[in-house]
Amino acid sequence: MSVLTTPLTAVAALNGADEELWRGAAEILDRNWSYDHTVPSRTLYPHHWSWDSAFNSIGLAQTRPDRAWRDLRSLFEGQWFDGRVPHIVFDARVPANCYFPGPDFWAEVPAPDRPGVATSGLVQPPVHALAAWQVFRRTPNEAAVEELRWLYPRLVAQQEYLTRFRDVGGAGLAAILHPWESGLDNSPGWDEALGDVTVGTEILRPNVRRDKQVAAEDHRPTDQDYARYIFLAASYRDGACQDADLLRKHPFLVECPSFNALRAVAELALARIARVVGADSAPHRARASAIMQVLLDRLYDPATGMFHTLNVRTGQLSPERCVNGLIPLMLPLPASRVAPLVAVIQSPRFGLTEQMPVPSFDRMSEKFDVQRYWRGPVWINANWLLWRGLRAHGYGQLAATLRTAMLNLVRRSGFFEYFRPDTGEGIGAPAFSWTAALTLDLLSDC
Ligand code: 2M8
After folding, report:
1. Which residue, of 25, 179, 330, 364, has the fewest CB within 10 Å?
2. Half-sphere exposure of 357 (CA within 13 A, CB side)
3. E strands in 74-229
4. pTM of the entire structure?
């Protein structure tokens, strides 16, 4: 079925301009569909990314529920036997030079623990249980129950991997061992911890950075950061992607507030899914509460009113105020912690207005960069998570402002990967899948 014949029943209430926006978003998801999954972008990211798959399935639930389930399923077909869900499942049909580091880079892993599909060995934030629940809620029929039955044990294994193998700090939070695992790749929240990764840019072979050939160089991470990314990925790969003894072996280990908040959100979604598939939901709720408590005890700073990244190697909190420090708002936090977070969102540092959603980094910091990826630009997925958090805590008016701001931005600038937080200009990749997918979700919430 082509996008133009996609039923618009969910959007019967939309006005003409919004119907056009809906069609534009649905068309991008259609164009970015590739056999059994959605690519984030045809030019920049031609494979299957983990947390993108979750966001994209939430949009596909509006237009093509069959594809929403297929997208999640094909991602989990790449799940490793230890439970990790790889941050990229590579598509064998895509030529090797279309993304770096691609399947050749990861193929050197001498690990017996992998499925027969080429994947990276890293992970990304576990948004998939929330996504599965959202897709199910949209069309809760018998086929959807079957999909949940298939996914449930795999989602549980994903959580167990993070609990068993990534609690490097020993307090109950999962550590990430690469900035790519956060999804917020070059966020200033990692700068201090990355300072311990001393490697020169000569590690990058000439022209190896495919991203700079298809996107503007000053919108992407610097070569110095990229050299560190490649060094960290190669070092983990050369250790067969094993997690034993990470503290001794691996130079970058941090506890990210949004990664762990999303891990707790996943447990809350699993509690709901458990009820549908006839499993016990109580352990999921208990795990969500436990993670939330450690987040509060370990990563919250009353002086800034928000959460910060912890460097596991030094035990220090990063001083930077990044959007990942606001995302725990999605959890049922006590009111004494919610009010300061909401105040930060409205403060000049993040400055939410109807014309501009929340940037990825503190506007008042010297490091604030209006163009460079996760160091300032506005991202729709981060704002969509905040929108859900504001609604959950009863901030209906502010949530409505944020929804309007996101839709205004996309209407004005298009379905870009990210947006300048000063002018709203769309930058990074055009026709970006999760921007389109989450626009559909926002529009359906009218
Ligand atoms: C970006 O990350 C990839 C590496 O995973 C890259 O820069 O090459 C990030 O924005 C990440 O959050 C996202 O999942 C990925 C694909 O959209 O792109």
Report:
1. 364
2. 28
3. 88-89
4. 0.96
